[in-house]
């Protein structure tokens, strides 16, 4: 269930209430006349089944309530109410399959913002992966994958393509390119430093490295895994099952590939550097294609669900 807290201009409250009342899957409607001070107006709250949330939020935005008042949405972790159970039963579809496009756009917008924190995480992840590459240590590679925040901008690109939001696409692409550029440059410098203190060496980089040599040897499986991870990551975002993102993060070879490219470049091993770059690009393209396709399919399936619901008169 979702909880909506709305601030409505006094002359629009009746329209808002009517919209909520005719939306199947809503309950616990409360109207507090004149309770809002900034902006001035009435406060309206209600609970709505997740699968009906996107429809209701879309209707509220069509009424321009996001401009004239306020729309706040939060998840309800626990609701002990027969009315809430009935609302969820009456709402079309399953809550796990519902996509809140406004929430997705907001989440990806935040995750794809080029910030000091984002760049720091990506850079640190790449440096950790560089240590894993030189030491041929799979644990460090997995740890670096988990730390890397690059899936946020990738999800932002997918969302922007499906929702046709050029500004979000540019923001996400900018975060991705600048973030990896900074991470690569810093990791090259980190490699020089580690070489000076005797912790990195060309011998270690050129060794057989059975645990990590796949990083600079991309193949068909690299693309397959990236596609599967892109689908899983997108589903975890749209279904609010964020725990799956950790599994997605340690499935793709983006950060390790960037790290191997930086270390190899620092030592003049351009063949390894190019192979790692191919691995990086292959993973990025695979994730974006899979994520975009997943969102398109979800959007189509949910549109079909709404059409079936409209024909049966449930809305």
Automatic annotation (TrEMBL):
Q: Which InterPro entries match?
A: DUF389
Carries keyword Hydrolase? no
| Alphabetic keyword roster | Membrane, Transmembrane, Transmembrane helix
Pfam families, per the entry = DUF389
> Membrane-crossing residues?
116-135, 141-162, 174-194, 214-237, 244-268, 280-302
Q: What is this protein called?
A: Uncharacterized hydrophobic domain-containing protein
């Amino acid at each position: 269930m979702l909880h909506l807290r709305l601030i409505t201009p006094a002359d629009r409250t009746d329209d808002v209430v009517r919209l909520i009342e005719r939306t199947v899957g809503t309950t616990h409607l409360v109207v507090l006349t004149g309770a809002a001070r900034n902006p001035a107006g009435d406060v309206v709250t209600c609970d709505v089944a997740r699968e009906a949330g996107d429809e209701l939020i879309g209707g509220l935005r069509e009424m321009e309530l996001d401009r004239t008042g306020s729309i706040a949405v939060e998840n309800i972790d626990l609701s002990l109410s027969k009315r809430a159970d009935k609302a969820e039963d009456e709402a079309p579809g399953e809550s796990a399959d519902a996509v809140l496009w406004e929430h997705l756009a907001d989440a990806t917008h935040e995750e794809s913002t080029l910030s000091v924190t984002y760049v720091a995480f990506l850079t640190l992840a790449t440096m950790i992966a560089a240590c894993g590459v030189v030491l041929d240590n799979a644990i460090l590679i997995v740890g670096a994958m988990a730390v890397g925040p690059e899936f946020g901008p990738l999800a932002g690109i997918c969302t922007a393509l499906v929702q046709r939001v050029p500004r979000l696409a540019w923001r996400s692409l900018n975060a991705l390119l600048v973030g990896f550029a900074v991470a690569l440059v810093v990791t090259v410098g980190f490699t020089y430093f580690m070489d000076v203190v005797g912790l990195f060496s060309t011998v270690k980089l050129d060794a057989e490295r059975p645990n990590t040599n796949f990083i600079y040897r991309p193949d068909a499986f690299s693309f397959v895994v990236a596609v599967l991870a892109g689908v899983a990551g997108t589903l975890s975002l749209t279904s609010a099952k964020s725990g799956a993102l950790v599994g997605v993060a340690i499935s793709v070879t983006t950060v390790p590939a960037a790290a191997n490219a930086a270390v190899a470049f620092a030592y003049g091993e351009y063949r390894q550097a190019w192979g790692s770059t191919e691995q990086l690009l292959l993973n990025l393209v695979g994730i974006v294609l899979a994520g975009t396709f997943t969102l398109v399919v979800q959007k189509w399936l949910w549109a079909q669900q709404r059409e079936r619901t409209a024909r049966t008169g449930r809305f």
